[in-house]
Amino acid sequence: MDFKGFDHPDRTADGGLPDGARSVKVMIAGGFGTGKTTMVRSVSDIKPLTTEETLTQASADVDNLIGVADKQETTVSLDFGKIGINDQLVLYLFGTPGQERFWFLWNGLFKGALGAVVLVDTRRLASSFRAIEEMERQDVPFVIALNVFPDSKEHPVEEIRDALDISPNIPIVACDARDRASSRDVLIALIRHLKDRSSVALEPR
Ligand SMILES: Nc1nc2c(ncn2[C@@H]2O[C@H](COP(=O)(O)OP(=O)(O)O)[C@@H](O)[C@H]2O)c(=O)[nH]1
Ligand SMILES: [Mg+2]
Q: Sign (positive/negative) of CA torsion 109, 110, 115, 116?
């Protein structure tokens, strides 16, 4: 799959939202079963796509290098959706494939991404560690969305921030990924976060 159509050359140096941005690529990341597919489906204006692609297609050479067993059968899926926030701004949503250690095989997966939502299931915090690490490594600004399940316990946000080891400026919001309005609120929190980052850069020095 080619993601290059979503390149965003205007991305500001500090990863903020550029002035006049119209279409923005946003990653929906997080551990297995945290609600990525659910969120893309609930919030998308178009019928969301879920694609399957074999890792060998993504990169046969690298597969050889790392010696993936049963590589013909190794498939990963990617969710894609789109939401108009207002008449100025359209978000293209890319749910990240599972197995974060293979993200590097997805040529251009993060290219041009202006931001990310990292979904977290508080019952299994550790399942999203790798996604957070990768966002930091790829330098993609993100917000944390705590997807609330029926038996999730309520934790003080600062406790979760400590456990995830993320800096105080990264927003943490609770959501229900099945609910369109709730998922949309998460995306709006991300846009605000990106705008905040841009305005810092615009401050006179
Ligand atoms: N109760 C509840 N279940 C959810 C929620 N979000 C996702 N699920 C369920 O959790 C499972 C995993 O969600 P999915 O979106 O496939 O996770 P993914 O692996 O991150 O794409 C599915 O069975 C969903 O129906 C939520 O907000 N509340
Ligand atoms: Mg999924």
A: positive
For residue 114, how far is the Cα from the chain centroid?
10
- Positions in the chain whose pLDDT score sits under 50: 1-10, 56-74, 202-205
Residues at CB less than 6 angstroms from ligand 1: 30, 32-38, 147, 149-150, 176-178
- Ligand 2: centre distance to CA 77 (Å): 7
User: What's the CATH number for 22-196?
Assistant: 3.40.50.300
> pTM of the predicted model, to two decimals?
0.81
How far is C-alpha 136 from the chain's CA centre?
12
pLDDT for position 108: 82
At residue 18, the pLDDT reads: 66
Which pLDDT value is given to residue 19?
67
Strands 23-30 and 89-95: parallel
Cα torsion 166, 167, 170, 176: sign: positive
**Domain edges within the chain:** 22-196
Beta-carbon neighbour count of residue 146 at 10 Å? Answer: 23
Our mutation pick for probing the ligand 1 site, out of 34, 36, 38, 184, counting the most ligand atoms within 8 A of Cβ, is 38
- Residue among 66, 79, 88 at smallest CA distance from 37: 79
